[in-house]
Amino acid sequence: MNNILDVVIIGAGPAGLSAAIYAKRAMLNFVILDKFLPGGGIASTFELENYLGVGRVTGMAFAEMMTNHVNELGIDVQMEEVLSVNLSGDFKQIHTDKHLYYTKHVVIATGATSRKLRCKGEDEFLGRGVSNCATCDGFLYKDKTVLVVGGGDVAVEDAIYLSRMAKKVILVHRRNELRAVKSLQERVFQIDNVEILWNHELKEICGDNSVNKAIVIDNQTNEVKEVNVDGVFIAIGYIANSQFLNHQIKMNQQGWILTDHRCETSQKGVFAVGDIRDTVLRQVVTAVSDGAIAVSEISKLV
Question: Is 119 in the active site?
Answer without folding.
Answer: no
